[in-house]
Specification:
It is a single chain. By secondary structure, this protein is an alpha/beta fold. It is built from twelve helices and 25 strands. β3 and β4 form a beta hairpin. α6 packs across α7 (about 185-200) and α7 (about 185-200) packs parallel to α10. The protein starts with a strand and ends in a 6-residue tail after the last strand.
């Protein structure tokens, strides 16, 4: 048996491993992985909670962040997803505000992002955009109010019905375990803030899974669809495997648009759920001012100083969809589209106040909000994006290689280097209005 590798070559599986593969209607499942997953599940009660963190971990991460952005979420356990966000407190801004002095958070404002992507935010779309997330973020509503008030966005709170928070079963109580200090609380804050940027009048539904286990996040995905969300945003991922593919059905909801971040690890194996053809996978760009008609320019987000770059990859488990032109990959290629992934301010008091965040966790909820703004999520699919290539800013500069050179890693092809037209790091490009959505 041969399986197409992520570098367009063919990989031969030896006899013993080949016999371990079982073919069923949902795809290829590696039986050994299922056994490992079951063993990890049974051993889990003895381990600390994956959402444990609190003030001690916040202090460690923020101390390290004095020297640059740091991964908000810790390295995940087997079977757990990892959030795709990097964080650094805005120390000078927060000190000034604490002393009663005026200070402006640094980074791209909602108004600037709206101009960069030509978003008609005056449209009063009332669609519900959901966030699938691990754990409960204490005071999430107050953090969102602070962000929206600072940048002049309309209020959005729980009493008004604009913001609704439920557990993975769709109920207000009992609440999911606290994610304070785990990094998932930063992720949740970022997600609701970016949805607010793109669709300030949309309703926001936050579905909090009981843990970062990919199985619990899949349940939260199903719950978001059942509760009527038009768009569901997922800013997390796990390296694709036969085990993760058994959960693919949770990301297949006709009449719902599902969005996922591509990951922050450069050119590598594809991540789940971004690898799925039923999902719009979103890569990352670095946005800059420019003296051109648009006023902005973009390139592939790749920051060697923090070892972060928007992920791309060729799936070994999901067949290439008919609408995707990716001649060097027989599987689905990540990503489909992209958006800004660096230089974003958000507010989370538990982490010190104003923070700078980065990662494809910025791009995914922003794109989910654009789907909400367009108002067509019930009738469009990812396939439709590829019929509207003219409605994207084509990104033609940069690469997402973190180790080695593009020539060594992907032979300088579109799989890791931005090119005219479709390329894997940025997909079709970044939104030019809502025409593609």
């Amino acid at each position: 048996m041969t399986v197409k590798s992520r570098t367009a070559g063919a990989m031969t599986i030896p006899g013993p491993a080949r016999r371990a593969l079982t073919v069923f209607s949902g795809g290829l499942v590696l039986c050994g992985l299922l056994a490992v997953g079951a063993a990890a599940s049974t051993a889990r009660p003895a381990a600390p909670s994956p959402l444990a963190g609190g003030a001690a971990r916040i202090a460690r991460v923020t101390a390290a962040a004095r020297h640059g952005l740091q991964a908000a979420c810790a390295k995940p356990r087997p079977g757990d997803a990892r959030c795709d966000v990097l964080v650094q407190p805005q120390y000078a801004v927060n000190r000034a505000l604490a002393a009663g002095r005026a200070s402006r958070p640094r980074g791209w404002t909602p108004a600037q992002l709206e101009r960069a992507y030509r978003l008609p935010v005056s449209r009063r779309s009332r669609q519900t955009v959901a966030v699938s997330i691990a754990g409960r973020t204490p005071h999430l509503g107050s953090y969102l109010r602070a962000y929206r008030a600072r940048f002049g966005l309309p209020p959005c709170g729980q009493p008004s019905g604009c913001l609704r928070i439920v557990n993975q079963h769709g109920q207000a109580a009992p609440a999911a375990p606290s994610s304070l200090g785990s990094g998932w609380d930063v992720e949740a804050t970022l997600d609701v803030s970016m949805i607010s940027v793109a669709c300030p009048h949309c309703k926001i539904l936050v579905v909090e899974a009981s843990s970062p286990a990919v199985s619990d996040l899949a349940r939260s995905e199903d719950t978001a669809a059942r509760l009527g969300a038009s768009v569901i945003s997922n800013s997390y991922g796990i390296r694709e495997s036969g085990y993760s593919q058994t959960l693919a059905r949770a990301y297949q909801h006709p009449g719902r648009m599902i969005v996922a971040s591509s990951g922050d690890y450069g050119y590598d194996a594809a991540n789940f759920p971004a690898n799925l053809a039923t999902v719009t996978s979103v890569g990352g760009t670095a946005l800059s001012r420019a003296r051109n008609a648009r006023g902005f320019t973009e390139r592939v987000w790749n920051d060697p100083a923090i070892f972060g770059a928007g992920s791309s990859g060729c799936s070994a488990y999901v067949a290439r969809p008919s609408w995707q032109h990716s001649p060097d990959c027989q599987g689905s290629t990540v990503a489909d589209t992209s958006a800004v992934a660096a230089g974003i301010p958000i507010y989370n008091q538990a982490w010190g106040g104003w923070l700078t965040v980065a990662g494809t966790s910025v791009a995914a909820p922003l794109t989910a909000g654009i789907y909400g703004l367009a108002g067509n999520a019930a009738v469009v699919t990812t396939r439709d994006l590829y019929q509207h290539a003219a409605d994207f800013f084509d990104i033609t500069k940069g690469n997402n290689v973190l180790v080695g050179s593009p020539g060594q890693v992907c032979a300088n092809t579109y799989l890791c280097v931005a090119k005219p037209g479709y390329d894997a790091p940025t997909g079709l490009g970044t939104p030019d209005g809502i025409g593609a959505f």
